[in-house]
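Dear colleague,

Thank you for sharing your sequence with our group. We've completed the structure prediction you requested, and as agreed, I am returning the results in plain text so they can be pasted directly into your records. Please verify that the sequence below matches your submission; if there's any discrepancy, let me know and we will rerun it promptly.
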Amino acid sequence: MIEQVFYIAAALLVAGAVVLLLRRPRRGFATGTGRPPASSEFFPVHCRYFPQVRHALTAEDAPYLASHASPEVYRRWRKSTRKAGRLYLAALREDFSRLNRLARVISLHSPRVRFQQELELLRMNFYFQFLYGGVVLRFLLGRPAGDRLEQMASFIVSVGGRLEQAALAPHISAGAVTP
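Please find the predicted structure tokens below.
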């Protein structure tokens, strides 16, 4: 009796999973079209705005505001500056995830990608996570993080340029997948 209940429950769970898988649209494809996403969805968008963000995050305004503004205004300014930095950091993470997805697509379709290139992708991910953690720590400590953000943005730009060349190349070489 207990075995029958177990088998019926297992069958219902499998049937429910199949129904969910068939009903949910795949996230990798545009909803309703059945086509893969546009190539513009793979390339970084936010890192090109770093000069404006750097200007907004500079600490040069802090002494002036501390001496000329009320403590409330100064506190709100510091809070909004940290929030802008966190939002830009999240945008850089989105840019990197786009590039990572592109690298995976290129390596998937390249017949000559070897284990060494996959290790390079892993190293690239670890390096980005290290930079990301450093910036988060600086934000938590209330320290300026403009130099680390610049390092992250330039890293993303260099990886993006290399992957763009690899994506547009008629024959993808094994070294083109990773920087």
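Summary note from our side: The chain has two domains: 1-37, 40-176.

Kind regards,
the structure core
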